């Protein structure tokens, strides 16, 4: 076997592995898959009622503010292995430790007025309860422009465009 044929044979064996590695790197570079192996952007909820929001990914960076709401939905827009850059419902952008978040999906009613929670995903459906202004709710699912949420022990459907925490596009720049 000539050197060229041997090189071609070796290359054909390793080409799929090289392509796979290159594709993974491309996905990370495009912001689709982060070092955690999860998509970026994505929504998560804060686990604790006190979370430091920092200027950069590390404890040596200045604390910009402190989140004080367990369950607050935030959007991960960038990440390192241990840190997440998040966008919050007020448009704030900061770094938090990855371990202070969990995969629970929550949403927030950012408007001040209450929102009717419907028995079915349509405007003419019976109102079962109201989601208060600035309230956080657990997200079950969204379909057809409506989201099924749970808050205060009550479940219901609300218009998706009335909530923060469902839009897949990056919310902060």
Give structural notes:
The chain is built from one helix and 13 strands. It has 173 residues and is of the alpha+beta class. A hairpin with a 2-residue loop joins strand 12 and strand 13. The longest helix is centred in the first third of the chain and has 28 residues. The termini are far apart. About 14% of the residues have low confidence.
List keywords for this structure.
1 helix, 173 residues, 4-stranded antiparallel sheet, single chain, SH3 domain-containing protein, alpha+beta, 5-stranded antiparallel sheet, DUF1058, signal, SH3-like_dom_sf
Write the layout of secondary structure elements.
Layout: H1 3-30, E1 42-46, E2 51-54, E3 63-67, E4 73-79, E5 83-87, E6 93-97, E7 101-102, E8 106-108, E9 115-118, E10 127-131, E11 136-143, E12 146-151, E13 154-159
Antiparallel strand pairs: 1-4, 1-7, 2-3, 4-5, 5-6, 8-11, 9-10, 11-12, 12-13
Keywords: Signal
Protein name: SH3 domain-containing protein
Signal peptide: 1-21
In short:
The protein is built from 1 helix and 13 strands, in the order αβββββββββββββ. With 173 residues, it is an alpha+beta fold.
């Amino acid at each position: 076997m000539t050197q060229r044929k041997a090189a071609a044979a070796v290359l054909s064996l390793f080409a799929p592995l090289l392509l796979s590695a290159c594709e993974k790197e491309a996905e990370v570079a495009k912001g689709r898959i982060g070092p955690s192996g999860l998509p970026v952007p994505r929504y998560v909820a804060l686990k604790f009622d006190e979370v430091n929001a920092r200027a950069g990914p590390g404890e040596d960076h200045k604390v910009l503010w402190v989140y004080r709401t367990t369950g607050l939905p935030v959007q991960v827009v960038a990440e390192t292995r241990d840190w997440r850059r998040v966008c919050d419902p007020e448009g704030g952008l900061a770094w938090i430790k990855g371990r202070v978040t969990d995969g629970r999906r929550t949403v927030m009613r950012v408007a001040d007025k209450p929102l009717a929670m419907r028995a079915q995903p349509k405007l003419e459906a019976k109102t079962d309860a109201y989601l208060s202004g600035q309230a956080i709710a657990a997200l079950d699912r969204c379909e057809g422009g409506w989201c099924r949420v749970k808050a205060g022990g009550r479940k219901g459907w609300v218009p998706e465009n009335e909530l923060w925490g469902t839009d897949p596009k990056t919310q902060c720049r």
